[in-house]
Amino acid sequence: MATFNVPYVTSNSSSWGPPPKEDDTSSSSTNAPISRFEDLPYAPFGRSDRLGRCADFTTQSFARTGDATAGYFRGRTTRNDANKNLEFQYKVDSEEAKEFQLVDSSNVRAAGAQGGGPPGGKRFVPQARKRAQNAARMRQLNARRDNQNNNAAGVGRFNQPQRTRAGGRGGRGGGRGGFGGRGGRWHDRIDRQASVSVRPDWRRVEDIDLAKLSKGTSPLSNLVDNSSPKGVEDLAFAGFLDQYNDQYDKVSTRTPAPLKRVETKEFYPVTTTDDPVIEKLAIEGKGTVFATDAILAHLMTCPRSIYPWDIVVQKLPTGALFFDKRDASQFDYLTVHETSNTPPAPLGNRDNEEDQINTPERLSLEATMINQNFTQQILRSQKHRSNFDLPNPFWDEEDNDGMEPASVAYRYRKFDLGDGVLLVARTELHGLAKDNKKVDTSKIALPGKKKKKKQVEVEEEQGDQYMTAYALNEYDPSFASNAPPARPGTTINWREKLDNQPGAVLASEMKNNSFKLAKWTAQSMLAGASQMKIGFVSRINPKNAYEHTVLATQTYRPADFASQMTLEMGSMWGIFRLFVKLLSDQPEGKYVIMRDPNRAIVRIYGVPMETFEESDEESEEEEEDEEGEAEE
């Protein structure tokens, strides 16, 4: 029977690994570790060294015989730090190194930078000439290096400063600005998804560059006229309006007003083709183009947009155009910090609750609810209500479920755009406000009294004026834990600046929410509103997205506000005329206007008529499912 012999194991009490030869008492044994591996090369490991290969068995001095090369490796296997990994050091390939050129990357100090003339009595050398001299010197050094031994280990040209995508002025890590420097970005680029997927059977009609369109340099801009409508006519009024509560003009950061939830008001963001009044006007032949003020303002100010969007257009056999929105789209939701340098970041895979309430989707829902609640809270009770001839066309009195329509008046207007284009639009008004004009009493002669020299101004109440109301909600990028560091001056604390520097707060919002404010201004001008009320709403606690407070309410004239935003009404009408012109030249059918999610380009597609249409069976199934859930 065969026996198993336990191999000899040497004990090393001083360190890890085999013991030194002088400590090995069994070095004479052939099975001893030192005897078997005595002449093999060994290099101590250095963590800071860059290893080119794990082992080198191709060196010319290495032979397969152990004794002949023992002396050669014995000097290199010592535990001297200077000889660490000497055989395994990374060496530059001479053939590969020929592709690099030596350049001068040193900072050249301008001559005569200090004092009144060139230091040391040296003559002044122009910078262009100095750069040419340095380039010539580098070429000579490279040529001299090529003539030397190309096989010498470690010889290579000096690396050139690399100009990467993140480098240059304000890039990440390199060039002027560096990490977060001038024009730099801390966060990565966000690749957004399109609002609707382009299908293979869609036909591309036109691509419009928004940058050129906003500057008027697009070739398509010459197709239309950039002028205001030739005439405006009111066709119908529907709904009712409540009076504005002047107490909200006195709200400040010291005396804020809590924002209440309006749970009994119903809002109707109905699209164009579902409006019964527009349907009646279309049958009567009142216009050739039909749209709502929200869709019109969106197209007029689309060069300022960043997020993707889409609008559906139908051309009838009569040539009439209907601009609609999809039922399942996010068109009616307000954006937050869309045009900011630090827009809200998507949630991704993070589960932090603070991040969940600061995503673009959650902020959009929060801003929409704030805007609806604010527009109803700033109005007085029903005692000051003004009813129009037509009731709210979207409210069903029999099926109200204890709800009532919100205080909104629908003003149907016809705009004559020329060339036979008659636009019929449904616009919205949110309330009635007093026109308080300042009057100089020093110019008024009161009976029985002398006119005072001191100038005194009082407010004189005039008639009621139509107004629109909107709300801005405060968002600080530092609310989210994943937010990049904000640049100095990009964020303003409303509670600190709103009372003393309201202009600075408004200027910051014009930069961060340029597209949203431009749409509000365009909607107010389309509706013929004389005043535009803008409320500033903030969270009571940055971590709570459900409780808010009104910090201030400011009043603006839509025309003056448009001039502050460099918003020209003629240019906006020209942009809308361009879409009408491009679609009027197309055959009958359905079309989609959509913005590219990552490029400033608007594309027009021709789509089949059944696109975005739900079948009757699917609609019935959805209704049955909703009824079943309600019964449960």
TrEMBL record:
Q: Which domain of life is it from?
A: Eukaryota
Q: Where is the composition biased (Acidic residues)?
A: 611-632
Where do the record's region annotations for Disordered lie? 1-42, 144-188, 610-632
Identify one Gene Ontology CC term for this UniProt entry: eukaryotic translation initiation factor 3 complex
Return the Gly residues bias intervals: 167-183
What are the protein's UniProt keywords?
Answer: Cytoplasm, Initiation factor, Protein biosynthesis, RNA-binding
Organism from which the protein derives: Skeletonema marinoi
GO molecular function terms listed in the Swiss-Prot or TrEMBL record: RNA binding; translation initiation factor activity
What is this organism's lineage? Answer: Eukaryota, Sar, Stramenopiles, Ochrophyta, Bacillariophyta
Extract the coiled-coil ranges from the record. Answer: none
Is RNA-binding set as a keyword in this record? Answer: yes
- Name by which UniProt lists this protein: Eukaryotic translation initiation factor 3 subunit D
